[in-house]
Amino acid sequence: MARRPRDSVAFTVVVTVLVALCAVPLALVVALSGAPGTVLLATVLAALPVGPVVACFVWLDRYEPEPRRLLAAGLVWGGVVATAFALVLGGIGGLLVPVTEAASLAVVAPVTEELTKGLFLLLLLWWRRHELDGVLDGIVYAGMVGVGFAFVENVLYLAAAYDGTDGVGPGGVEAVTGTFLVRCLFSPFAHPLFTAFTGIGVGIAVGARSGLVRVTAPLTGYALAVTAHALWNGSTLFGFGGFLGTYLLLMVPAFFFVAGLSVWARRAEGRVLRIALEDAAARGLLPAVDVPWLVDLQARRASRRHARAVGGPAMLAAVRDYQQAAVELGFLHHRYLRGTPPPDFAERGQHFVARIHAVRPHVALPGQVVPAR
């Protein structure tokens, strides 16, 4: 195993400490938002859209699946750290510069919430840059942070709607149903969508050759995230007509833009991976005949089914390890070919090649001879 970079340790420590510090006050905020039964009902309702939205991002993240612990860290960051920081910053801002409720909703909330959500992406860019290979990775991590943030925020909104403390109506089932329909059914993608603009900027910065682009791309993405968020929040100030108009004219087109960009980036990853692995094979880093079985997603699944059938769990584990190491090498090699390799390119490349050479004798892809045990 390659030694663990200090940057990875620093990232883990910072995220863990911030989660621990923010968990207690946030838990108090949730607990005080209503009676235990109300909070339980709000939590169940808020959790309903989480699975389907997360599944969409996991589906996008299939060519080079990101570490599950980092995806989970993004969810926790959004639900705990970003939410707590947004509440604190919003409260401090209101004390220092008194603003109206409308200004807080349309200006303060978008600025602080997108800042605290986007901070996770900046930490990745700073300390775990090797986990980011482009725009799609930025969108996936941003989506996870947005899902976590939306979940906790929805718990608070649903509880307030049921208790009648949201200032809109008397509360009860009718109020919580309306809030559920708007926040959980019609716009479960809202927060992931806003933060995706920051993720796109971070993804562009990772592969940029220009220092100016590496700085301005995340800032531009953040500005777009704040703008979209502000327009969405501001639409609620103009009644149902303003909300519906913004939903149809802004949210739906923005959703299809980001979704289309994500699908395009996912397909582009397949082409990039094929070119990089073919070049790596030409350099003798792995067998050229294996490349088709590593690039195509259906071929990968077929390889795993074949491994389980002919070699049992041991060969299945070997094939999984081989695929992961080869794909990681492919995307790393792509950055080398682009002229934007990470600082630890040589060390990481040697580690992946060593893993490939160690496990390849124990792998039989479809149509190949099963290795003797």
From TrEMBL:
InterPro entries: PrsW. Keywords: Membrane, Transmembrane, Transmembrane helix. GO terms for molecular function: peptidase activity. The chain crosses the membrane at residues 9-33, 39-60, 72-97, 103-127, 139-160, 180-205, 212-232, 244-265. This is RsiW-degrading membrane proteinase PrsW (M82 family). It comes from Nocardioides perillae. Pfam families: PrsW-protease.
